[in-house]
Amino acid sequence: MDASSLGGRGRGARMGGGGARRYTSGMKSTAFLSRNRRLLVLCAVSVALHGALLELAAHRKPGPLAPAMAPAPLALRLVDVVPQAHGSAAAAQREPEPEPGRQATRSAPDSAVTPVRPPAPASRPRQAAPAAPAVAPANAAPPPAQPAPVTGARLLMQMPGRYRVSLPPSARLRYELLLQGRPAPDRPAYLDWRSDGATYTLDIDGLTGRLSSRGMGGDAGIVPQQASETQGERALRTSFDPETGEVRFEAGGTRAPASIGMQDRASVLVQLAAIGRADPEQMQDEIRIAVADAAAVGVSQYQVLGQEDVATGIGTLPAWHLAQAAAPGQARLELWLAPSQDWLPVQLRLTAADGTVSTQVLTRVDR
Hints:
Elements: H1 3-35, H2 37-59, E1 75-77, H3 87-93, E2 114-116, H4 153-157, E3 171-179, E4 182-183, E5 190-195, E6 199-205, E7 210-218, E8 221-231, E9 234-241, E10 246-249, E11 254-257, E12 263-264, H5 267-278, E13 286-292, E14 297-312, E15 315-324, E16 332-337, E17 345-351, E18 357-366
Parallel strand pairs: 12-13
Antiparallel strand pairs: 1-2, 3-4, 3-5, 3-18, 5-6, 6-7, 7-8, 8-9, 9-10, 10-11, 13-14, 14-15, 15-16, 16-17, 17-18
């Protein structure tokens, strides 16, 4: 074998070794692709999808967001959760209802809060529906009635005998009558009171005129049934009817409602004595008594002015000074009640509308 043959074999051997190496590398690549075929397929699909999305986005025209995608504010709807209870405990656990027109501020559990989307705006705003009139439940109590103003007869009907009384024993008091400070011997002046505890008679003459009263005694003191006052030659009578609760005036043929403790012009003087006799503590500030005269009913108010000593025909006597309230231009009567004489008046003074003053002072007491 020559040298060229040896050289050729050497080159062939070297070349054969390179081909073997390339063959081995190709086999390794084929094995790698076989093992990672799924991964390559997923990568290819992902690239294709991204490319399709990019192509779609490039060809789509931009526009406003759909109303459904627009962010909308959330509103809260409050749901009352009232625990079950009985009687007053349930009422105590309920919260007061909010006033009309005011937003409720109480909190509710998280589970009771529900988001509510507001409705889509309409083309025109809706007009508020008129509020329905409030309808009271059928069993609701009626509203309290407003009290009517108390005037006239209603005032008298609401004036019960609110004073404790003790009727004085029978007595006849005689007075000296003084007109403008001068004695009037031709004018008799007396107070004749007769009572057995069940019935009474009363006759008065003097600066108050000639008066008489007949009736009974009761829990409220004197209870007149018939009264009269003489004006000139005529006696004007007044009748008290306890069954109908009325006062009848003979002079005018009219009537008026009566009230417990109502007096006539004569009996009111002894009723004042009965009030002081029952309890001197009642002689404070003002005493109010309903009085019926010959034509009408009114309320006489007597101001208690305090205690004074009065010089009389039987000595100086401590007495309580009372003055009848009178409007300007009207006659005003004052009287002095002596506890030592069973609180009967030991002195009276009348100031007439024209300013004339008449006084009668006790001179004698007959039992």
